[in-house]
UniProtKB/TrEMBL annotation:
It comes from the Bacteria. InterPro entries: DHH_sf, Oligoribo/pAp-PDE_c-di-AMP_PDE. SUPFAM superfamilies: DHH phosphoesterases. Residues 35-52 have a biased composition (Polar residues). Transmembrane segments: none annotated. It comes from Chroogloeocystis siderophila 5.2 s.c.1. Residues 30-52 are annotated as: Disordered. PANTHER family: BIFUNCTIONAL OLIGORIBONUCLEASE AND PAP PHOSPHATASE NRNA. This is Exopolyphosphatase-like protein.
Length: 422
């Protein structure tokens, strides 16, 4: 029966009962249940609401993809994509293929973390590096839309190029806190979720793509998702119920040996050198470890978060911040890059970084975060470029090092003066 067509208003229903006295005598309306729900019933009720919300999100994405059938899209990652971003983008690409949408996964930076390199090489993950300069010379007219996965455009040099080309944003899917006012046809932002890989696994569970263990590409993608979920939940130690449920689903399809091979990738000598620098230069105040590591090559940028991961394991340290000036010789670009790691439950990395470094002239924050981790990128601007002498390079670093420490210590030690002058 069509409930919509047969629905009666309260007034017409009352009138019908009044006109038939026999019906009034025999029909009893059930009294509302005012008894309080048990804890178990409340949990089941919340689970049903969550499931309903997930189904609605999956249906909304399905509807958007159906509208763009047989088109071509760009999937834009942050400049230095991590396993969560890479695996989620690959999943989006495979889901879009179900609607005959061809997707190119692109990032402007580089893969320098040994596990990221191993992930791409061992799985054949189809991500391409497009520098911002190279993107400007490409014919982008073939693309009718783009998707931002595990980011909201604030950590990608490619978004401005894409927007200048007039390409609309089809989807934004991310687990970080709200970063800026972007318009998109489909938006799924869930800061309470530990990994974007969890969101995409839920899409798979909702039927947007049926994984098949006999399809090698599906096995590799499931392995990548498991790696992304694992890395963003600190080996599942920070995982919540929905992350565990996603991992349980992926366990039917992923390749444990392949994942182990990815995780066994060795640290490079350059990464070890940056970790050594962070140990040498660190200052510890109020259980915060703060370390500037000087200049780094663009290809070694991922050594910074690895150094932060290492410093936060020190006894009596609950939060570590590591930063350096990353130099891109190809683009003649320099940028201050930093990472934060914390084990303190009451410290929100997103709020801390936004309060410490603020916004640029366009109102976009220089950084943000999620539970237990965050990052920031601050363009050097006019002072960026070729360094003629080691003395000039040293002075330049000292200025930025002092400025960053001042902004951080203003929050760590609000009553202290972090800049000591003679």
């Amino acid at each position: 029966m069509d409930l919509n067509s047969s629905h009666l208003s309260n007034s017409s229903y009352s009138q019908e009962l009044t006109e038939d006295p026999h019906l009034v005598a025999t029909v009893e309306l059930p009294a509302p249940d005012t008894s309080p729900m048990t804890t178990s019933e409340l949990g089941n009720h919340q689970a049903q609401r969550n499931h309903s919300s997930l189904v609605q999100k999956a249906d909304a994405l399905r509807h958007i993809l159906e509208q763009h059938r047989q088109e071509r899209q760009l999937v834009i990652l942050q400049d230095f994509p991590d396993p969560d971003a890479l695996s989620s983008a690959w999943t989006y690409q495979l889901i879009a293929q179900e609607y005959e949408i061809h997707c190119d996964i692109v990032y402007a930076g580089t893969l320098s973390h040994q596990e990221n390199i191993a992930l791409v090489k061992l799985t054949g993950l189809p991500a391409q590096r497009w520098t911002a300069q190279a993107a400007k010379s490409k014919d982008l007219s073939m693309y009718t839309g783009c998707a931002l996965i595990d980011n909201q455009g604030t950590t990608s040099q490619l978004l401005s190029v894409v927007q200048e080309s007039g390409i609309p944003i089809t989807a934004i899917i991310d687990h970080h806190s709200f970063q800026g006012d972007l318009k998109a046809e489909f938006v799924d932002l869930r800061p309470t979720v530990r990994a974007t890989a969890t969101i995409f696994t839920q899409y798979l569970q909702a039927g947007l793509l049926k994984l098949d263990s006999s399809v090698p590409q599906h096995i590799k993608c499931a392995t990548a998702l498991m790696h992304g979920l694992r890395s963003d939940t600190d080996r599942l130690m920070q995982a919540q119920e929905e992350d565990f449920l996603a991992a349980a689903y992926l366990s039917r399809f992923y390749d444990a040996q392949l994942l182990n091979a990815i995780l066994q990738a060795n640290r490079s000598k350059r990464v070890m050198d940056v970790i050594e620098r962070s140990l040498k230069n660190r200052m510890v105040q109020n259980n915060f470890s703060i370390a500037g590591v000087g200049y780094l090559r663009y290809d070694d940028r991922d050594a910074i978060p690895q150094a932060a991961d290492f410093l936060v394991t020190e006894e009596n340290v609950h939060t570590a911040v590591v930063y350096g000036i990353v130099h891109d010789e190809d683009e003649e670009l320099e940028i201050v890059v930093g990472s934060l790691r914390t084990t303190k439950l009451t410290l929100d990395p997103d709020e801390f970084i936004k309060e410490a470094f603020g916004q640029d002239s366009h109102g976009r924050f220089f950084g943000g975060g999620r539970t237990s981790a965050g990052g920031f990128e601050i363009p050097i601007g006019f002072l960026s470029g070729y360094i003629e002498t080691s003395e000039y390079a040293k002075k330049k670093w000292e200025v930025f090092d002092a400025q960053i420490k001042q902004k951080l210590l203003r929050l760590v030690n609000p009553k202290d003066n972090p800049i000591q002058t003679e």
